[in-house]
């Protein structure tokens, strides 16, 4: 029931925003950034080049508070100008943001999109949580994006990452003036950026082989939430540091990589970013700062080339 109510409210709010009729209103192109820890971002702010180390005042971001499964639905966040600190460790209480010393792909993604379309206002919605899977059986202690996840007790019964996603989208899209300039804004969906799959590659071959179908279902649901069936999607291909005595951190990573490629090939409105294979790592699971700087740009460039009907 909660998912149905949240989705209905989200769609209703989004329709209201699309129907705003104001000659002076700003029209923002909205990009959703989602996934697990390599979407959270483990780059160090101290490593950023000078042009990325300050607030990007003409790009807005709503970063929903990361929350585990089996707790009351969250989604808290605020619209604010983009700046460093939206990486791992970021938090929001819905009134103010608590920035971390880490960053993800959001900075260079926004920078590259602005270079490609300098006259189009850009806004990001980021909802991600480290360790999360799509498959229910790979959720572990981190969480699951499958809407049918039903674990937990009490007020958290059945609450999962998809529920938190819907709550975050609802909060983001119900804001009429995201840049607080006194004028109602129009929000137009422009794309989905998805960096996830490592957890689905860590358990069993069976779980890994389910990834293509699970990914398609989730992307269809996210597109439906944004009311755009052909909304461009860009997928970041998972990679492996090899920092493991057995040779691979993600035992069934090759299966998930093939599944990501298969989804993109069949979808018609998706692209696969493969530059991740060449990145260095800050630990066995996460890219280094230079990797996130490059990945954001690669996501933007790939998304820009995805065809739409």
From TrEMBL:
Keyword vocabulary terms for this entry: Hydrolase
Short name of any one Pfam family annotated for the protein: SASA
An annotated Gene Ontology molecular function: hydrolase activity, acting on ester bonds
Superkingdom in the source lineage: Bacteria
The Sialate O-acetylesterase domain, residue ranges: 28-304
The protein's name: Sialate O-acetylesterase domain-containing protein
Source organism per UniProt: Gimesia panareensis
Organismal lineage: Bacteria, Pseudomonadati, Planctomycetota, Planctomycetia, Planctomycetales
């Amino acid at each position: 029931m909660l998912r149905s109510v949240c989705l209905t409210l989200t769609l209703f709010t989004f329709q209201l925003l699309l129907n705003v009729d104001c000659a002076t209103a700003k029209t923002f192109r909205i990009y959703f950034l989602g996934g697990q820890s390599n979407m959270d971002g483990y780059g160090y702010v101290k490593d950023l080049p000078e042009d990325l180390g300050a607030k990007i005042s003409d790009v807005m971001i709503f970063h929903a508070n990361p929350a585990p499964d089996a707790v009351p639905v969250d989604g808290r966040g605020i619209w604010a100008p983009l700046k460093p600190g939206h990486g791992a460790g970021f938090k929001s209480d819905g009134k103010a943001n608590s920035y971390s010393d880490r960053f993800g792909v959001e900075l260079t993604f926004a920078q590259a999109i602005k270079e490609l379309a300098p006259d189009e206002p850009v806004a990001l919605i980021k909802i991600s949580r480290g360790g999360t899977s799509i498959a229910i059986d790979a959720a572990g202690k981190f969480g699951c994006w499958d809407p049918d996840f039903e674990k937990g007790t009490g007020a958290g019964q059945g609450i999962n990452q998809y529920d938190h996603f819907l709550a975050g989208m609802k909060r983001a899209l119900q804001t009429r003036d995201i840049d607080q300039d006194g004028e109602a804004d129009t929000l137009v969906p422009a794309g989905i950026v998805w960096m996830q799959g490592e957890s689905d590659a860590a358990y069993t071959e069976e779980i890994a082989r389910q990834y293509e179908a699970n990914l398609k279902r989730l992307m269809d649901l996210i597109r439906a939430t944004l009311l755009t069936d052909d909304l461009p999607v860009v997928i970041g291909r998972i990679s492996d540091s090899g920092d493991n005595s057995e040779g691979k951190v993600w035992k069934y990573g090759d299966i998930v990589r093939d599944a990501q490629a298969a989804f993109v090939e069949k979808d018609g409105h998706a692209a696969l970013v493969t530059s991740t294979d060449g990145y260095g790592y800050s630990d066995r699971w996460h890219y280094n700062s230079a990797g996130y700087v490059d990945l954001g740009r690669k996501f933007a460039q790939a998304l820009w080339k995805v065809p739409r009907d």
